[in-house]
Write a structure and sequence with these properties.
With about 220 residues, the chain is α+β, with helices and mostly antiparallel strands. It has six helices and six strands, in the order E-H-H-E-E-E-E-H-H-H-H-E. The protein is globular.
Length: about 220
């Protein structure tokens, strides 16, 4: 698996990890790491426990294997999430894949947050709900939505957003009685970030901030 700009990284397909206990707390709880939550986020919100999270974190953050999660789209830009396990520079990178497969554009990087440019709710849903069955990667809509949820920008979300996120969490094993709590905490963090970061803009609008890595998609 090759992505220009990551040629020195040992990239491996990560989709098999999506159903493993501990994945979603590892992927999403970093969004609540700003200390602003009145209630301490816990993996039990997602139906997992600390042992699950610790065991999978050793796989997700292995410097010898960088998991890549592909979110292909039938008609339009898809996305790729890369766990950049470079010693001394760990983080999660989000790339937008051009519809014709000619290039990959980094749209955000996360070290506990995702500063940069983001997706509107409409754009996020469009990507989540339009998988390309002919391409390798995550196909389930709930999984696709949660993988890209850290990219969500905009404080004025539709009322349906909360229910859609709750449904995605329960579809990925979160208990019914804690899925709403998890969704509320994640949305509160996203809305705080949107209010305080005026630089957010859609990568699908045609604009391209300086400093983004451009390259070729996975081969």
């Amino acid at each position: 698996m090759l992505i220009k700009g990551y040629l020195d990284g040992p990239l491996v397909a990560g989709e098999s990890l999506l159903a493993r206990p501990g994945f979603w707390p590892n992927h999403l709880l970093a969004m609540c790491g700003d200390g602003a939550c009145a209630e301490r986020p816990v993996p039990e919100w997602f139906g997992d426990d600390g042992a699950d999270v610790d065991a999978l974190s050793e796989v997700l953050f292995d410097p010898e294997r960088w998991p890549v999660f592909r979110v292909p789209v039938e008609d339009g830009p898809g996305a790729v999430v890369i766990y950049r396990n470079l010693v001394g520079d760990y983080g999660t990178d989000y790339l937008l894949i051009h519809p014709d497969g000619s290039r990959a554009q980094q749209i955000a990087g996360r070290e506990g947050d995702a500063p940069g440019i983001g997706l509107t709710w409409h754009e996020l849903i469009r990507i989540a709900d339009n998988p390309s069955a002919a391409a390798d990667g995550a196909q389930d809509g709930a999984v696709r939505l949660l993988l890209l949820l850290p990219l969500l920008a905009g404080a004025d979300l539709p009322e349906a957003a909360r229910e859609r996120i709750i449904a995605a969490l329960t579809a990925t094993r979160a208990p019914q009685d804690t899925a709403a709590t998890a969704a509320d905490h994640l949305l509160a963090h996203l809305e705080r970030r949107s209010r305080h970061d005026p630089t957010w803009e859609s990568p699908l609008s045609g604009s391209r901030p300086a400093g983004l890595r451009l390259g070729h998609p996975m081969k």
